[in-house]
Amino acid sequence: MQDIEGFRVSRRTALKWSLAGLAATGLAGGLRSAAADTLADIKKRGELVVATEMQFPPFDISDNGVYKGVDRELIDAVAKELGVKVSYLDLPWTSVLPGLEAKKFDLVIAPVTITKERMKRYAFSVPIADATASLMKRADDKTITKPEDLAGKTVGGQKGTAQVAQFKEFAAKLPKPVEVKEYVDNNQSYADLAAGRIDAAINSLPNLAYAASQRPEAFALVLPPFGQPTYFSWVARPDDQSLIEAVNAAIVKLDGDGTMAKIQTTWFGQPTALPTTVPEPKI
Given 56, 122, 177, 221, which is the most exposed site by the fewest CB atoms within 10 A? Predict the structure, then answer.
């Protein structure tokens, strides 16, 4: 899900979607028997099927059934470059990567942190945003001014994320043990934080910065970030090189023509430069 170095993404028009309706078409089953050249198959269909979890603002948001956010805007722009339309699947985070491996869809646009282990299993796009692990506290909590102040406290984050894994490593070096609570999605950790059931929430810096900006009376960032500088990308299956290369070419083009900067400004308040090649992961 450390420096404030690199936010990336996009947003276009909000459209309604229906996961149940898409499933009823049997599209997922059709993808399982797709041709080996996924990009050619996508262009033949005229449709790119993507999956994400629409509970990850500002990247993915379901607003009364309307999908919007950074990933929505960016994938719409990428699909336009590819000359195809997009179908969007909303899945729990824990189902997204297994679903990709099972060939239930073409591409994961849920932001996936680039890690050494994941690089062995997936083909990553060029970065679409910063993913540096950070913390958020209650705005009125004066006991926490830096990450080290979480010693002896309780922290929550989304289960299965690189950010939670990084925090566990960080917490192991603190002088007092830290209780780490894991949630199905980040909104649950934010709710518990606001209610005082945990002392801080873990997520990527851009996610937490967005959450704090939306509710400044309730939340505040804990700076500096504690994690190693990392990035979010989209992922495809490792044998779908032609697809990921086409996606990368589109992202780089959108970066060059100013579209990426517009998307970043919309959701993060300012444009930020990101690598135009996949960086070697630090974690």
Answer: 177
Question: 165-176 burial string, b = 16+ CB within 10 Å, else e?
Answer: bbbeebbeeeee
Measured in degrees and rounded to the nearest 5, phi and psi for residue 62 equal -105, 110
- For 171-219, the pLDDT digits (tens) are 999 999 999 999 999 999 999 999 999 999 999 999 999 999 999 999 9
DSSP 67-130: EESHHHHHHHHHHHHHT-EEEEEE--HHHHHHHHHTTSSSEEEEEEE--HHHHTT-EEPSP-EE
Does the domain formed by 37-130+232-268 have CATH 3.40.50.1820?
Answer: no
- Cβ atoms within 10 Å of 263's Cβ, excluding its own: 28
Q: Which CATH superfamily is domain 133-222 in?
A: Periplasmic binding protein-like II (3.40.190.10)
Domains 37-130+232-268 and 133-222 share a fold: yes
Nearest to 108 by CA among 88, 127, 126: 88
pTM: 0.78
pLDDT tens profile 139-180: 999 999 999 999 999 999 999 999 999 999 999 999 999 999
Q: Which of 60, 57, 58 is nearest to 89 (CA)?
A: 60
Spatial neighbors of 169 by CB under 8 A, at least 6 apart, are none
